[in-house]
Amino acid sequence: MPLYEFRCPNCSSFDAFYPMTDAPDSALCPTCQSPGRRRISAPNLSRTGSSAFKLIDSTKRSAAEPQVIDSRLPGSPSRTTGRITSNPLHQKLPRP
Ligand SMILES: [Zn+2]
């Protein structure tokens, strides 16, 4: 949910969270209860260093750039164990 900035005519500006689809053009000031108009402001980048954003970034990065694994997990079968499938059509597939 994005953070929107409003300017109160009597006080200073205040921030409020609203869903993107329901962002009002004005909101009541929490201090004096007068309607404040929504301002066009820069996106809230102060959270980019938080652990939540690091998790989101690593999740997005793993979808596009998966980490290369250079060793197998302990206990996992090796690649030369034998045939994995018994389907004869798989015999025609290229070998690595
Ligand atoms: Zn106010």
TrEMBL record:
Residues 77-89 have a biased composition (Polar residues). It comes from the Bacteria. Residues 1-41 form the Putative regulatory protein FmdB zinc ribbon domain. Residues 35-96 are annotated as: Disordered. This is Zinc ribbon domain-containing protein. The lineage of its organism: Bacteria, Bacillati, Actinomycetota, Actinomycetes, Micrococcales.
